[in-house]
Give the backbone structure.
Amino acid sequence: MSEMTAEQIWTVQAGEKRSVGVIHIVTLALLIGIGFVVGAFGSISFPLGFGVNFFWTGIAVQQVGSIWFGMWGVLAGIIFPFFSNAVAGTPFYVSAAYIPANFVQAFLPAWAFRYFKADPRLKSGRDYLILFLTMIVSSAFGALWSPLVVLRSFGLLTTESVPLFIWGWFGGNVIAGLVFNFILLKALSAVVIRTTAFVKQWWA
Amino acid sequence: MNKTLLGYVPKESPIYFIHPFVKLYFLLVVSLFPMFITQPEVNLFIMAVILLLMIWSRVDLRILRIYVPVAIAMGWIILLSYTVLGGTHPEFELLAKVLGIKIYWERLRDGVVVYCRILPMIATMVFFLTTSRERDVIVAMRSVRIPFVVTYVFAMALRSSGMVLEDFQIVRQAEQARGFDTTGKSLGYKIRKYVMYMIPLFALSLRRTEEFTNALVARGYAFTGEAAKVKRADYILTHYSFKLHDGILVALISILFIIILTLRYGYNAFSLDSSLLINWLYQILR
């Protein structure tokens, strides 16, 4: 069997039927489950405060999950931080206010891989670059949104201490992303793209 | 004491006679209280009430040790944020100058206010986690008619996180059996090697996705189409009924919230000017 090209991975072939099935619902649940455990590890082990961490392992589930499973991964990336933050003592409404940051962090890599037809198996330098840039941009948005909008509006930080949290969030996500995202995609994408759970478009 | 995925809950407790929805409602509404209250003593009073509720619920208070570092860490971060990183403000009242760092009264006061705001929010979350079993959350969701598929995903997510934890132990033991040992190694090394757990964890989860799906399809589950429209028996709800005392508690929480909002916006209550604790602190530090 010939190997699929990046174009073929994301394109629905003639005669190929794709629809939302039980497997996608199950995938969502399992991603929330794994994100909860992995994210809680980062939240408890490397806390900076209010759900911000120096090394947030949950980013791997958010970004790799959304590249493989589209909106199901994005949904999981929004939902699981509620659990992982809760067990680390972050108030419910602070977690709720992080939703836009978590959405962008999960959505952007998924969108970029689909739009630019990048190969999730990371076959070329272009694939690496797209992943790296989306990690940087999405984490930068999260890092700006969370301390500037959320923590400032809750009155938890002074203006002068905001940079510490911005860099904490950004660095915590990007470093964890660099450690896990590339290896996970490289090691498992070849298998995942052949499963029925893989999402070519957004929902199926 | 029973271990749940979210924390530890007492084996027997009077709080189990309260409908799970009331506990969820308490979490969602009481967490909002501190946002409308500036006076630290009122927020500390709310926290004390929650601690009393924990004692009444027979929560083993040793569990709180898990959350003490979190509370202390947050306290330090707020203190540093409002003092060391507080900046230079000639318009504020200078209390002291330590190693070139200017400590202002207004900054310190705001730090105390913020910390006392965050403590009851953490306490409310901890109270919920230490009095609610996974099943309680699902019952609460079903009680408010959250769609079956959402509740099912939630239940499955909790179940799968339990399995991920088990898998994590298995993977770790397998790595150790092959001679992998991080004892005495640097943090950077441990972080890099954490990948050795992540890849098998993801791979196992992917395999479980197929197993779960096959099991559900074999049992005739469908979340879309005609089969999804079949009315399902809410077996779990037959074990829980919403009683009069549950209704009274929901009404009390709602009334209390309305009172706080009225006092805050109608009578400018809970302001810092009338705070006994802040005035006392000012007298001491001046």
Notes: Residues 134-236 of chain B form one domain. The mean pLDDT of chain B is 87. The beta strands of chain B are 2-3, 8-9, 94-98, 101-104.
